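Weekly modeling sync, notes
Attendees: AB, CL, MP (scribe)

Item 1: holo prediction request
CL wants a bound-state model with zinc ion before deciding which constructs to order. AB pointed out that an apo prediction alone won't tell us much about the pocket. Agreed to run with the ligand included and paste results into these notes for async review.

Input as submitted:
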Amino acid sequence: MSDMQQYKCPCCGGALEFNVSGQNMKCPYCNTEFDMETVKQYDESLNQHKPDNQSWEMPSSQWGDGETGDMKIYICKSCGGEIIGDDTMASTDCPYCGNHVVLMGQFSGDLKPDCVIPFKLDKNAAKEGLKKHISTKKLVPKLFKSENHLDEIKGIYVPFWLFDTEADAQVNYRATKVRTWSDSRYRYTETSYFDVFRSGSLAFQNIPVDGSTKMEDDLMESLEPFNVNDAVDFQTAYLSGYLADKYDVSAEQSVSRANERVKRSAEDVIRDTVVGYNTVNVNNSSIQHRNGKSKYALYPIWLLNTTWRDKKYTFAMNGQTGKFIGDLPVDWEKFWMWFGILAAIFGSVAYGLLWIWNFLL
Ligand SMILES: [Zn+2]
Ligand SMILES: [Zn+2]
C-alpha cells in the first residue's frame, strides 16, 4: 500500500497529514482530525463517480431518388439567407430582409427532415392577425397597411434539432449545518460537514435547439411553445407553397447546447431533494445518457420582415398556435401632425403630449 497517497480534508479541501499524537489524520489548515476509516471512505466516494457520457445518435435520414426534384435553393445576396422552395418561388423576396432572392439551382444533399409540424393556420389567418394588430395602431405608415404588403407574409419552415434521452445522473454535494449557542463567557459555532450523494434517472423528450442563425433566437423563443406532439413524419408535400430555411447549424454543433440543458436540468431536479442544510455546494456531478437520439424537425412560422427608413421590422406568427409577435414602425410625421391638431384642441401641451401619446401609440 502506498503511503504517498494524498487525502483531501472533507471540510476545507486541504491536504491531510498523519497526526502522530492522535494516530489519525489531521488537517493543518482547519485543524480538524479524522480517523483513518472516515478518510478512506470519503476518498473512495470522491473517486467513485462515473465519467460523463453524453452521446447522441445523430439524424441521418437521406433524401430518396427524385424526392427533391421540384425543390430549388435560393440565396439572398443581401443577407446571405439560403432558403428552399419550389419552382414557383422564382420571384420571391427574402423572408428575412425583404430583398430579392436569386435561384441558386437544384436543391441537393443535406439531411432529410425526420418530422414536421404542419401549418395549422393559413396565409389568410396570418394576414388577418397582422391586420388586426395594425388596426389598433394609428401611426403605422401607409406602406404597412396596404394589402400588397400584407400579401408579402411568407410561410417558412424553420429547422430544429430535437434531442431525446434517458439520463442517469449522480451528484455529490458538500453540505454544512451550522449550530450556534452561547454561555455566559463564550459564543460557540459548530459547523458539521456532510458528504451528500444523490443519484437519479430522468427522461428528456424533444429538447429543441434552433438550427438556423437567420432566425433570431429571442424571436424564436417568443414564438414558443410549439406542440411537438402534432409533428408528423416528413413528406415533401408539406413543403409545397411554403419556404424552408436551410439549416446552417448542424446537429453536431447543437449537441453542446443540448448536453448543457440536460445536465443543468438534472442537477436542478436532484438539488431539490437535498434539504435541511445551511449550505450545499456541488462537489462533482456526472451524467450518462441512455438511448440518446436526435431528430431533424421543421417548425411552421409566418414571417414578414420589412425595412422602413433603414430600420428592420419583423412580424412573425406561430403557424401552429397563432401566437404572434411584432413590432411596427411609427410614422413620426404623422405623430406631429396629430399632435398639432390635438394640442390645438386641448391647449395644455404637457398634458396633451402624454394623452396624445397614449391615444396614438
Ligand atoms: Zn481542513
Ligand atoms: Zn435576405
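Recorded for review: The longest helix spans residues 251-271.
Action items: CL to compare against the apo run; MP to circulate these notes.
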